[in-house]
Amino acid sequence: MSENLTLTIAQPDDWHVHFRQGAIMAQVVPHTAARFARAMVMPNLSPPIVTVAQARNYRAEIMATLPADAKFNPLMSLYLTDHTTRQQVTEAAAAQHIVGYKLYPAASTTNSARGVTRVSNIMPVLEGMAEHRLVLQVHAEVSDPEVDIFDREAVFIEQILAPLHREIPDLKIIVEHVTTAQGVQFVQQTGDQVAATITAHHLMFNRNEMFRGGLRPHAYCLPVLKRESHRLALRKAAASGSRAFFAGTDSAPHTRQSKQRDYGCAGIYSAHAAMELYVEVFESMQALEKLEGFASHHGADFYGLARNAGKLTLQKKPWRAPPSYRFGRQHEIIPLCAGQPIAWSIAGRDC
Ligand SMILES: [Zn+2]
Q1: How many angstroms does the Cα of residue 118 sit away from the middle of ligand 1?
Q2: Which of the residues 20, 79, 128, 164 could staple to 48 if both were Cys, CB 3.0 to 4.6 A apart?
Q3: Which residues surround ligand 1, an ion (CB under 5 A)?
Q4: Which CATH number covers residue 198?
Q5: Which helix (H) or strand (E) covers residue 136, if one does?
Q6: What's the CA-to-centroid distance between 4 and ligand 1, angstroms?
């Protein structure tokens, strides 16, 4: 009955993605570029991307993984440290393709050791960002090991983000990969200077997924999956049509070896099926008409960028995600829904 169902939307953008570097980057960039017109590339490499020159080189490396005529525009973010200067902010604001700064509280997630130790250390820099209309992209979790891991987002919002917003109300802030009802509520209650990205996996799964039939390292990400009531709050926000919520996959590739070991890495790889999974989620919420705003309009509007002119057509035609993506001699990435059927496919693109 529904096998020929198609949905055409303006070309979507992924407002939060990790490409890493080297061989793994060459493996993952084409997946994102096949679905999205633009992607907001996270700067948490080792060492992190802190200068305009580093971002320019990194962007060139990303483009070099694609055919020369590829229509894909990576947008770059710089990594905030305790030592970022106002002068650097001014340079970043003038640079093509740089649209934001990423705030990682020190030691909160992958390659965040050089992150900001106290937001009060960087207030002049944040004021400079507000002046230049650069967006602050926040990994909104405290890194205090005493705080329960499931509460770290709510605590960060209450103790750090809400006061920061009151202090610099003109600063555009994105709560990246929001995962809690408290995060959703914070975004809804503040004005149009605050928004949030939402991943496909936080819309699809609650924390039980990490323990379904045994410990599942490939369902471990940060911020960690939360209880069902939070997932339902995220789904309601995404399906509400509110311009404050938009797609950001947080697709974060790690090799199987680096996830399946003592101290396995956090991160879920979803770029291989990102739009297919978002459309499945919106269909399950009976909100297909809200997908285009969420995936293609709200993020561009928040960043003050033009919406994409091209179109993407999705079709309700099942395919099976591979059990892994192999690259290099001995590496593989285990993707989200590995070996499982996915209900929707990409049917065409008109750029
Ligand atoms: Zn991320």
Answers
A1: 20
A2: 79
A3: 250
A4: 3.20.20.140
A5: strand 135-138
A6: 35
